[in-house]
Amino acid sequence: MSMETLIKRLENIMRGDDLSGKVQYLRQIVWMIFLKIYDAKEEEWEFTDNYISIVPDYLKWREWAVDKQDGKAMTGDDLIYFVNNVLFKTLKDIEIDEQTPKKHRIVKYIFEDAANYMKDGVKLRQMINAFNEVDFTDYTEAHEFGDMYEGMLKDLQDSKRDGGEFYTPRALTDFIVEMVAPEIGQSIGDFACGTGGFLVSALKYLIKKYEHTNNPADRQIINESLIGIEKKSFPYSLGLTNLILHDVDEPNISYDNSLKANVREFEDRELVDIIVMNPPYGGTEDEIVKKNFPQEHRSGETADLFMSLIIHKLRMNGKVGVVLPDGFLFGDDGAKSNIKKQLLNEFDLHTIIRLPKSVFAPYTSITTNVLFFTKNGTGTEKTWFYRLDLPEGYKAFSKTKPIQSRHFGVVRDWWKNKTEICDEDGNYKARAYTKKELEELNYNFDLCGFPNKAEEVLEPDVLINEYLERKQGLNESIADILSKIKEVLEG
What we know:
Layout: H1 3-15, H2 21-45, H3 61-64, H4 76-92, H5 102-112, H6 121-131, H7 139-155, H8 170-180, E1 188-190, H9 197-210, H10 216-225, E2 226-230, H11 233-245, E3 253-255, E4 272-277, H12 287-290, H13 302-313, E5 314-325, H14 326-330, H15 334-346, E6 347-354, E7 368-375, E8 382-387, H16 409-416, E9 421-422, E10 428-434, H17 435-440, H18 460-490
Parallel strand pairs: 1-2, 1-4, 2-3, 4-5, 6-8
Antiparallel strand pairs: 5-7, 6-7, 8-10, 9-10
Helix pairs in contact: 1-6, 2-11, 4-6, 5-11, 8-9, 9-10, 13-15
């Protein structure tokens, strides 16, 4: 049975038990995938000395979920009672502390906010039996399922985005990692990692780059170099499971808010060599969180705060590839201008790629960009801007026609020998601007943009989301201004 067939089969079973929507489907599937994978991993770990499981024997997948064809497999009401009142209760109540091994703590993290949505024990047994047809100890089957899992994450883009977060197309994460070009041994961070897309792209890039060495030590170094932080429980669970599916046995992902750390107090051991991320934008943070940042970087826009975090978190000679909305490029409020000024003075902001408006459709129609820079301590000589136009025959990207890796081929070719490009209408598609020119533009980086935005055809739900985003942005700007006025009056 193919993985695609398996997923459709699981969805049909869940639909028959009145589960609704991709989010509920995925929430139901995640804890089941995790328990089965974790059990397969534990069978491997048990071959090593002194391994003791944190999961009681009677709660291991192999003990209660596998139908041994002896008539004793739980089903119906007995199965529902066991899952809800024994399995979930016990795993949620596991006690952990700082000394608990990471591979054990993962169990607690996954089940803290997990839920069983199935009410029909017979249908739940059908799901379990379907999972048991996948052998996660088989390399090919496990990796094929890993790819299918990422496809399921992509399907979540049907759902309403939450707090500025949305699925980043795999083609984009792969491209950014490829251009940043991490090396083995370098630490790679994503401080709003969501479902782990950037970390998986980095993992695959490094494995492919070093697969000829076939050295287990290299693989261990790569696994340990991936660092993620995610503040929301469900994406955090998805990210943990995603990395485990890709053979990272102890994912170094923290369940936390990156912005709660005082950026002025980072020690050298907390800095990273590579940062690749798509930070949430359009969200807000409490005033107490903003105080973790220098006065000149404080903002009501989460994207600005994440940019300040990146600036402070990057090690000397470290490299960044970050996705940001248009608002950061042309924004002239204090925080945005100050961050851009610091980028030009202390970093080599060498390339900005302007992305088509519909890259994130149907999540959002907001136009985004990728900024690439290196921490060199001496500043920027010139910044190249490149506009990635829609492929011929496309009016917009969509769910059925998403952006693909091949669409970045023109950027890859241009990147090798960056040259100025002027289109037939006399607009620059690619051009380098010196630091002095950008300063004279008052740090307005809205250059080599799209000349025919009005011609783009968008679906109604995308237009509605765009209106809501603009409304939210205006509300946040007003709140930020009122907050600053309040500070002045109180001062």
